[in-house]
Design brief:
Structural class of chain B: mainly alpha
Order of helices and strands of chain A: HHHHHHHEEHH
CATH topology of chain B: Ammonium transporter fold
Strand order of the largest sheet of chain A: 1-2
Number of strands of chain A: 2
Shape of chain A: globular
Number of strands of chain B: 0
Largest sheet of chain A: 2 strands, antiparallel
Helix content of chain A: 55-70%
Helix content of chain B: 55-70%
Oligomer: heterodimer
Chain lengths: 239, 315
C-alpha cells in the first residue's frame, strides 16, 4: 500500500488525479463560480474542508455503515459539514457567501466528495483518507484558483482584485468573466495539462500512474457504484 | 478532374470547387465592401484588410501547428475575414478585429476540424465573441460623415421615423457592410444567378420575418415600417451571405425552408421583444445549432424507396 503514504496522497490529489483537469469532476462549480481568483479560492477551500472532514468521518465509520445504505449515510455526513461551512462562510465572509450563492449548499452533491468517499475513504484507514481529502481538495482549489485568476486577468485586468493590467493599456475582454469564458479557459488549461502529461510520458517520467480500470481511477468510472472493488484492490496491490 | 471516370456514381461532375465558390462569394461581397469603404473611409478598409489577413494567417498557423494539409488556398478564410469585417463598425480598434478573426478561425472553425466541420458560421462566431466582449466598441456606430449616431433600427426601436431611401442606398450609420441594401442585393443576385446560393433560405427567412414583424411589430401592415425593418441592420447581409453558408445551413430542400422560418422567427423575437435593436447574428448562430435536428426531420425519401428509416440522403 505504498500509495497510502501521506505525500503520495497529496501528490495524487494535486497532480495525478487532479479532480478538475484530469478527472473532469465537479464541473458545475468549476465553471460557475470561477469569475475571479478569490471566488475560485473560496469555493476550493470550502470544498477542501468538507472533503477532508467527510473523508475522515466516513473512514472512521467505514466498518459501521452497512453497504446497502452507504450512499444516504455518506450524504448525511457530507451535508452536515456543508451546513457548517455554509454558516461559517455566511458569518465571517459575507461577500464570498454572496458571490458563491447556491454553489455552497451544492457542495453536498459535488461528485468529487462522493467520489472520494465511495472510492477511497470507505475502504481505507483514517490517516490516508484524511490526507486524500486534503490532497484532492487542494488539487480542486489550485485548479479553481488558476481558472479564476486567468478569467479575472483577461476579463477585468485584475488578479485577486489587484490591478495588473491598467485600463489605459488593456481593454478587458468581458466574455471571460461571463459563462462562455469559463469553457474557453477550462478547455485551454486541460489541453495544456494534456500536453505536459504527454511530454512527461515521452521523457519516461509518466505523470499518471498506470491504473487498472480506467485511466481516471474509480471516481471517474461510471461503474464505481456497482464495482466490487476487486480491480481497484488489484491496482493498489500492483503498485 | 476528368468528366468521365470509371467509378461508381455520381458520373457527371461539375467543375465547380470550393475555391471557385468562395471566389464568387468574395466577388459578390465586393460591392458592399467598396461601398463600406466609400461610406466610412480608410478605417473601414484597414479593418477589412486586417480581418482578412488575420483569418488567413490563423488558418495557416493552425494547420502548421497541428501538421495538417494547408487549406488556405480554398479562400474560405478570406471569406470569413471579409464577412467578419463587414459585420464590424468602422470605429472598432484594429486589434479587436484581429482578436475576432483569430477566434473565428481557431475556436469556431479549426478546432472542430476546419471547413466543413464547423457547426457555426465562423464569421458570426467571431462577431458575437466581440459583441459580448466589447459591447461598447461594437455598438459605437459612426456614420459616413464622422457623425456618431443611432442606427436606423435603434431609431425605430425608440419610436422615431427613419429615411427609407437613405437605408436603401446605405448612407446611414451601421457596420461596414450592412448599410447598403442596393449593393448587397447586387451581390445576392450575382450569387443567385451563378447558382452559388439557393433562394429557399433567404426567401423563407425574409417572408417569415415580414409576417412576424407585421403581426407583432405593433405597426400593423405599415409598409414603411416593414421596409425599414427589412433594410435595416444585418438582415440582408445575414440572410443572403451568412445564413446560406454551405457548412452551417441544412442541405435538405425542406430543411432549408424550415431553417429560414426559424431564422425569421428568431430575428423577429430578438428585434421586437429583445433588449437590443439587432438580432440577426444571434438568430443565425442559434439556427446553426438547430441544423442537425432540422436535417434529421427533413430527410427526403430516396428515389424508389417508399419508406426511409434513417440516413437516406438524396442530395
Amino acid at each position: 500500500m505504498s500509495d497510502n503514504r501521506i505525500g503520495e496522497r497529496l501528490k495524487n490529489g494535486l497532480l495525478i488525479e487532479n479532480p478538475t483537469f484530469v478527472m473532469m469532476l465537479g464541473m458545475c462549480p468549476t465553471l460557475a463560480v470561477t469569475t475571479s481568483g478569490i471566488n475560485g479560492l473560496g469555493m476550493g477551500l470550502s470544498t477542501t474542508i468538507v472533503l477532508t472532514m467527510s473523508n475522515l468521518i466516513i473512514s472512521l465509520l467505514r466498518n459501521v455503515i452497512p453497504d446497502r445504505v452507504r450512499m444516504p449515510a455518506f450524504i448525511v455526513v457530507v451535508a452536515s459539514f456543508v451546513t457548517i461551512v455554509q454558516f461559517l462562510v455566511q458569518g465571517f465572509v459575507p461577500s464570498l457567501y454572496a458571490a458563491l450563492g447556491i454553489y455552497i449548499p451544492l457542495i453536498v452533491v459535488n461528485c468529487i466528495i462522493l467520489g472520494r468517499a465511495e472510492s477511497f475513504a470507505s475502504k481505507n484507514p483514517i490517516i490516508p483518507s484524511t490526507f486524500d481529502g486534503i490532497g484532492m481538495g487542494l488539487g480542486f482549489t489550485c485548479s479553481l484558483t488558476v481558472i479564476g485568476c486567468v478569467r479575472e486577468l483577461l476579463g477585468s485586468g485584475k488578479i485577486f482584485n489587484m490591478v495588473i493590467l491598467p485600463s489605459d493599456i488593456y481593454t478587458p475582454i468581458t466574455i471571460f468573466v461571463l459563462a462562455p469564458g469559463a469553457f474557453f479557459v477550462l478547455s485551454v488549461l486541460v489541453a495544456v495539462m494534456n500536453v505536459v502529461r504527454k511530454k512527461m510520458d515521452a521523457k519516461g517520467k509518466p505523470l499518471a500512474a498506470p491504473v487498472g480500470c480506467l485511466a481516471d481511477g474509480c471516481a471517474g468510472c461510471s461503474m464505481a457504484n456497482s464495482c466490487t472493488g476487486k480491480l481497484t484492490a488489484d491496482k493498489k496491490g500492483g503498485e | 478532374m476528368g468528366l468521365f471516370n470509371v467509378t461508381s456514381s455520381p458520373h457527371v461532375r461539375e467543375k465547380t470547387d470550393t475555391q471557385r465558390i468562395m471566389l464568387y462569394v468574395i466577388l459578390s461581397l465586393l460591392p458592399a465592401a467598396c461601398f463600406g469603404v466609400y461610406n466610412f473611409g480608410i478605417k473601414a478598409l484597414v479593418l477589412i484588410v486586417v480581418s482578412i489577413i488575420t483569418c488567413v494567417c490563423s488558418e495557416w498557423l493552425y494547420n502548421h501547428i497541428v501538421h495538417k494539409k494547408q487549406t488556405i488556398t480554398d479562400l474560405s478564410a478570406v471569406v470569413t475575414g471579409l464577412l467578419l469585417a463587414l459585420n464590424l463598425p468602422s470605429s472598432l480598434p484594429w486589434w479587436m478585429a484581429v482578436l475576432g478573426g483569430a477566434f473565428a478561425i481557431f475556436v469556431v472553425k479549426c478546432v472542430f476540424g476546419g471547413l466543413g466541420q464547423n457547426f457555426m458560421n465562423p464569421a458570426l462566431g467571431g462577431r458575437c465573441f466581440l459583441m459580448i466582449s466589447f459591447t461598447g466598441a461594437m455598438t459605437n456606430f459612426s456614420a459616413f460623415d464622422g457623425f456618431t449616431g443611432a442606427t436606423p433600427l435603434a431609431s425605430i426601436k425608440a419610436g422615431e421615423s427613419v429615411d427609407v431611401m437613405k437605408m436603401l442606398i446605405g448612407t446611414i450609420p451601421g457596420t461596414i457592410g450592412e448599410t447598403s441594401v442596393v449593393c448587397l442585393l447586387l451581390g445576392a443576385i450575382f450569387l443567385l444567378v451563378t447558382g452559388v446560393i439557393d433562394l429557399k433560405i433567404p426567401a423563407s427567412y425574409i417572408i417569415t420575418f415580414s409576417v412576424f414583424a407585421m403581426l407583432f411589430g405593433g405597426h400593423g401592415f405599415d409598409s414603411a415600417y416593414l421596409v425599414s425593418q427589412l433594410c435595416g441592420g444585418g438582415l440582408m447581409l445575414g440572410g443572403f451571405f451568412m445564413a446560406t453558408d454551405y457548412v452551417t445551413a441544412p442541405i435538405t430542400p425542406n430543411g432549408k425552408i424550415l431553417y429560414g422560418i426559424a431564422l425569421g422567427i428568431l430575428t423577429g423575437v430578438f428585434r421586437i421583444f429583445g433588449a437590443s435593436a439587432e438580432g440577426v447574428s444571434y438568430a443565425i448562430i442559434f439556427s446553426n445549432l438547430l441544423v442537425p435536428l432540422i436535417e434529421r426531420v427533413t430527410v427526403p425519401p430516396a428515389f424508389g424507396i417508399v419508406k426511409v428509416k434513417k440516413g437516406g440522403d438524396a442530395s
